[in-house]
Amino acid sequence: MEYIHAALLLHKAGKDITESSLKKVLTASGVKADDARLKALMSALKDVDIEEAIKAPVAVAAPVAAPAGEAPAAKEKKKEEKKEAKEEDAAAGLAALFG
Predict the structure, then answer these.
(1) Per-domain residue ranges for the chain?
(2) What three-state secondary structure class fits 30?
């Protein structure tokens, strides 16, 4: 994430985004720059218009929620089934002792 922030900072300042300029920004902010990550970022940004990317709406994936009322009922049913199974097992164990 720091690498992208450094690229955006350089872009906002009107500077060219190069490996060396990214490395300087990262080093100045206390991050040890990884050359492989720098190369990967430069490759990824090669054909990207940053201004257009900033203006474009971002699609955020929202977590899918179960319809209201279904999830709690399903959880309660499972808990109740487990409780009944434990009670039956306990009863069977006691019956084996006395019968």
Answers:
(1) 2-55
(2) coil
Contact between residue 7 and residue 22 where contact means Cβ atoms under 8 Å apart: yes
Give the span between the Cα atoms of 37 and 39, in whole angstroms.
5
* Residue that the structure tokens 């190069």 belong to: 18
Q: What is the mean pLDDT of the chain?
A: 81
Report the C-alpha gap between 34 and 31 in whole angstroms.
9
| pLDDT tens per residue across span 1-29 | 899 999 999 999 999 999 999 999 999 99
Q: How many residues does the chain have?
A: 99
**Angstrom distances, CA of residue 98 to CA of 71, 90, 94:** 41, 13, 7
> Which one-letter DSSP state was computed for residue 16?
-
Which numeric CATH code is attached to 2-55? 1.10.10.1410
